[in-house]
Amino acid sequence: MTLALIDYGAGNLHSVANALKAAGCTDLAVTADPEVVARADRIVLPGVGAFGSCAAALRGVDGMIEAMEQRVRREAAPFLGVCVGMQLLADTGEELGTHRGLGWIAGTVRRLEPSDSAAKVPHMGWNDVMPVAEHALVRPGEAYFLHSYAFDGADVIATTDHDGPVTAAIGRDTILGVQFHPEKSQHYGLAFLRRFLDWRP
Amino acid sequence: MTVRARVIPCLDVAAGRVVKGVNFVELRDAGDPVEQARAYDAAGADELCFLDITASHEDRGTILDVVRRTAAVCFMPLTVGGGVRTADDARALLLAGADKVAVNSAAVARPQVVAEIAERFGSQCCVASVDARRTERGWEVFTHGGRRATGIDAIDHALRLADLGAGELLVTSMDRDGTRSGYDLELIRTVADRTGVPVVASGGVGGLSDLVDGIVTGHASAVLAASIFHFGEASVADAHAALAAAGVPVRKPILD
Fold first, then answer.
1. pLDDT band for position B58 (50/70/90)?
2. What's the CATH number where B214 sits?
3. Do strands A92-93 and A156-161 pair parallel, antiparallel, or not at all (unpaired)?
4. Range(s) of the domain holding residue A121
5. Choosing among A186, A187, A188, A194, which should be mutated to test the B contact, i.e. which has the most B CBs within 10 A?
6. Measured between beta carbons, which residues in chain B are less than 8 angstroms from residue A188?
7. For the segment B175-194, what is each residue's pLDDT rounded down to a tens digit?
8. Is B98 part of any domain?
9. pLDDT tens figures, A41-94
10. Domain containing residue A131: CATH number
11. Which DSSP symbol is given to A99?
12. Complete edge-to-edge strand list for the sheet that includes strand A28-31
């Protein structure tokens, strides 16, 4: 059971790799090779920083998006996007200009603009994951968030509250994306990753 | 609920060893920052901060090894500060496993370094750390552990660094640091009320009520403390309980 963790220069790559191993992943391939992704049983896309530079970095890996499309969308391999890796599922991101995402889940990633000045941006710290739709992997609990932009669109599975609802998880079919950082969410995060490793959607 | 107030223990690390750290009796090697980090992870700390106070330039690489080893076993957010001069310094720490990097003196000498880090790696990982002392007119930025005056207004400096892209402001009162007489709440609140980014209160914690004051009166989003945790006077759970009793939202970590 190979899990391909896509290496496209994302800052949280090693933290996600460490957490996946701690969650019990025994066959982890940290890879920039589309061939490995095309054969993987599961795929994880990490990501921190700006939407546009992450999208450009992912497109910069020759053949990677095609391999992801093939393996996830046509062959239904389980996929997890984390933080900006989740945001990239959207059609567009509006961070430092307008950038095209993967377009796997209809939506736009926009800046958080709480009207209450006590709600700070970045949204930084532990907050609730509150499921709004049934999903085998996403359970209520407290997870660590660290972001200034959030997904607004279809297929929302869970929200959190930061002066109003903010998307915490999105998903459809074998695709799941989480805004929070499971790799930084201690027990809650590791338990979530264990469920992903066991997921047979 | 809403985003929780964060309780952040801070460890001073020099040449890869904890200088000021916790007296957890069960630790095999209390001087090992990784062991201490594990203990705080198990105790439910909301984040952890390493402050690298290594004096000699040659030993600076050791913090990267400490961060790497910590990130392999701790699944909590980690901020690392001390000696970060350039965006490349920040990059090395982030790749080693730090989630946030704090810039202090380098941002006094050249505030633009904050913009460079934020542009390359995102505001979310760029913490601007400001050490301030009271003056007759307000507060002034000090460097070199509070010994060297700069003539720079601390509030203006902090706000400017947030404008340049810092995603968090770590504000330390050098008047209070080590005194255990509580945060400089007026300093913390003055910054917190004038910025849109989270503020971490630092310097002077002597008891749990100081943590509560930092959030409730200082309007900070997070409270940093060293000695009350290190000397075993209070646990992270005690801090969470004190904050909760004051009506501050805190998380209920699942502990080992």
1. low
2. 3.20.20.70
3. unpaired
4. 3-198
5. A186
6. 254
7. 999 889 999 999 999 999 99
8. yes
9. 999 999 988 899 999 999 999 999 999 999 999 999 999 999 999 999 999 999
10. 3.40.50.880
11. E
12. A28-31, A3-6, A42-45, A79-82, A175-178, A165-172, A156-161, A123-131, A141-147
The structure's pTM equals: 0.96
CA distance B80 to B170: 12
Report the C-alpha gap between B75 and A182 in whole angstroms: 8
- Angle B87-96/B61-73 helices, nearest 10 degrees? 30
Contact B6, B221 (CB under 8 A): yes
CA torsion sign for B185, B186, B191, B194 is positive
Structure tokens at B141: 């930025």
The rounded distance, in Å, linking the Cα atoms of A94 and A83 is 15
**Are B222 and A162 in contact (CB < 8 Å)?**
no
Q: Is there a catalytic annotation at residue A83?
A: yes
CA dist., res. B193 & res. B172, Å (int) = 16
**Between chains, do A183 and B75 touch, taking CB under 8 Å as contact?**
yes
- Considering just the CA atoms, what is the radius of gyration of chain A in Å? 15
CB within 8 Å of B16: residues ≥ 6 apart:
B33, B59, B62, B63, B65, B66
- Domain membership of residue B95 (yes or no) is yes
The predicted complex's ipTM stands at 0.94
CA dihedral in degrees (B47, A124, A13, A140; nearest 10)?
Answer: 90
* Beta carbons of B125 and A48 less than 8 Å apart: yes
Q: Map tokens 């945001």 to a residue.
A: A87
Tens digit of each residue's pLDDT (9 = 90 or more) over B85-109: 999 999 999 989 999 999 999 999 9
Catalytic site residue B163? Answer: no
The domain total for chain B is 1
Picking from A7-11, A67-71, A129-133, A152-156, which range would have the lowest pLDDT averaged per residue? A7-11
Q: Are B48 and B77 in contact (CB under 8 A)?
A: yes
- Looking at beta carbons, which residues of chain A come within 8 Å of B198? 120, 122, 124-125
